[in-house]
User: What shape does this take?
Amino acid sequence: MTHNKINFGIMLHGAGGHMNSWRHPSVPADASVNIAYNVDLAKRAEAEGLAFVFVADGLYINEKSIPHFLNRFEPLTLLSFLAAHTSKIGLGGTVSTSYSDPFTVARQFASLDLLSGGRAAWNIVTTPLEGTAKNYGRPHPDHTLRYEIASEYIDVVKGLWSSWEEDAFVRNRETGQFFDPKKMHRVNHHGKFFTVEGPLNIQRSPQGEPVIFQAGASESGIHFASKYAEAVFTHIQDIEGAKNYAKHVKDGAVAHGRSLNDVKIFPGINPIVGRTKDEAEEKFRAIRNLVNIEDALAYLGRYFDHHDFAQYDLDKPFPELGDIGKNSFRSTSDRIKQEAKEKGLTLREVALNETTQHGDFIGSYDEVTNRIIEWFDKGAADGFILTMQVSGQGFDDFSTEILPRLEERGYFDRKLHHNTLRENLGLAIPSNRYAEKQQIVAA
Amino acid sequence: MTHNKINFGIMLHGAGGHMNSWRHPSVPADASVNIAYNVDLAKRAEAEGLAFVFVADGLYINEKSIPHFLNRFEPLTLLSFLAAHTSKIGLGGTVSTSYSDPFTVARQFASLDLLSGGRAAWNIVTTPLEGTAKNYGRPHPDHTLRYEIASEYIDVVKGLWSSWEEDAFVRNRETGQFFDPKKMHRVNHHGKFFTVEGPLNIQRSPQGEPVIFQAGASESGIHFASKYAEAVFTHIQDIEGAKNYAKHVKDGAVAHGRSLNDVKIFPGINPIVGRTKDEAEEKFRAIRNLVNIEDALAYLGRYFDHHDFAQYDLDKPFPELGDIGKNSFRSTSDRIKQEAKEKGLTLREVALNETTQHGDFIGSYDEVTNRIIEWFDKGAADGFILTMQVSGQGFDDFSTEILPRLEERGYFDRKLHHNTLRENLGLAIPSNRYAEKQQIVAA
Assistant: This one.
């Protein structure tokens, strides 16, 4: 059973979350397009008992993008490939609701879910990067509109996922009856943004529907997460903040008629561990030294509508930016501005801080193990998504040193007990939207 | 080497091309969603030396759809899964240019191509089924407009596939240089239907770009095929017709400045073979007997805008339909009307004929082997796509009886010699659109 245990997922993001992770000797420099490396990592994660791998995404790059964003596998194709090499680990991937069609996306995730035996998860993003509009020839919707679109979109997709009841496909060779038309349902959606008739041309999987991941941090994002998400990622790096966030999301879920167990909180952490705290800090510095200041400034610009920070003095206080960044990664840009003001940071400090996040999980093996347990026990996390700064060393250390300690203390099983992601995460199978209605009528 | 040899592909379409193939004892009834069955068939096809598997697609179903269309895997996810289970066979799939975004589709095929080591092919369809519009909330473009959209679409996609030159990713850990900005290119497309800046966020594969498949049969379709397609499917069932078609397409290719070797003709055939012609005909009748007349009429309606044929007398001449069917599967509906008139067929005969195609490839092992060689030698085909009526028996017989005969006569190698689809089909690697320009400038 998975109750009382901590779930982990790991992000597959090439050489790592650090912008210059590809320079680190512990990973292949081409990790983001190295299929053997991705297969190996997914298999190791499964063998260690991690609940899922997760592939983030983006739809616009330019010269200033961080290197592994320039050249990487597309999530659905990568996850389908990994599905064939694994049998129990969940397969989560990002697709934007602002730049896709609900019929197509409902189908591709349903297909991944079915061919993996019930292991798919869809991470819903609304796409903050304005440049994306240039690759799709349509105006970039603003923050509020993006969430309005996303809400209608997910409603359509979940409707399509209910197109067929479990026992709709009779396949009686004697009578020639292939399916029961009463168990086929059309979503017949006519909304503000989408018109979709249905039905979807694929059945449900052993876990009913793909799991819904989401990572909204703004108020609209949290509202969306409370209503729809089943696993919520957060970048909050302090335990009190994470606890408040978790309570906020879960209270919201209850207000939407959901149960506390219907939504799991997964802070993203990037542990760097060593035999001593000093050894861990030394590893941290080695990673931070992979970056030069020009790259750091360009990367910072990404959160501020690609603002050119090279124009400022590096060692003067972080510049006043006014409204720049308001319509992009709003929660991140607000945080950066606020921290810079509160701590009186220079531009150089802000830029380097953003390239190499320090956070709460750098320390000795026992310190980090304790920290993880503390977050879990205090309700700041149901599990964690590992967004390793450097995938090689980061996951090597974590699997060798931290997971065994957590297992020893009864907080983790280095073994997946179930074949579907929902079961491994302790999430219920969603009822079929239309079958449920029939039951109510029959009662 | 593959010259002078016949290439084969096989369609993965569940239990088979026959509408009631799921009732045949030689295949699982749920073949279209049975992943183990699909893996097994792809592996067997690879072991036998077939050049590719191919997944057709559709984006709209209703109660009258043929059974395996109701519930099937989505092509890109299925092919990515199969990529992991195979190492040499090509992986072709259908995606519509009328109901998708070029940036997304360019990426997904490039990703499949890269993770499979250079084995992807994109079958371009413009989507004849009008009902599709109901699942995508936009008007269904008419025949001419669909091809106009498709031409601009493929131009954008091929531009995106040239985003990165082969040696663009330097990944020099010492200097910190990840890529050479001079070898990154933007398509910067501003057209009638699409606006796409680029670059694409994934590199080229070992075969350069995915192979372009196409199956247009109308004049606009043939024009499109001549200009862009590298492997062209045709449903023509007589050798003279196929020969004329091949000449027509290849002449067109030359007129577009391409070489005769740049486009390969693949008639779709569904051989049914036996020790004698009688045994083959008996197998044919067993398949035809799987269908009842109500299903046959509903299926026929699919080619005529879902026209209700149940209103007519079954044993009277095929009804006058006027313009019905003009905007859907035009070439098929025209053929059906013409054949009915020429041969004086009743509605019952037309309907049954359409459920179970007879064609030129039913006969004894030697007859069918000879027929295949004749088509190839006379220039009616560079290869064939096997669209088996019943995948189980059909491919069992073909691989056991026909392929060894073809091999014995020097027309086929039961072994793939190369790791990329282009090499196995004898197609050149396309030049990078932008790198080529630089060479001209430098010359």
Notes: Chain B has two domains: 7-275+359-435, 292-355. Residues 439-443 of chain B have pLDDT under 50 and may be disordered. The CA atoms of residues 243 and 379 of chain B lie 6 Å apart.
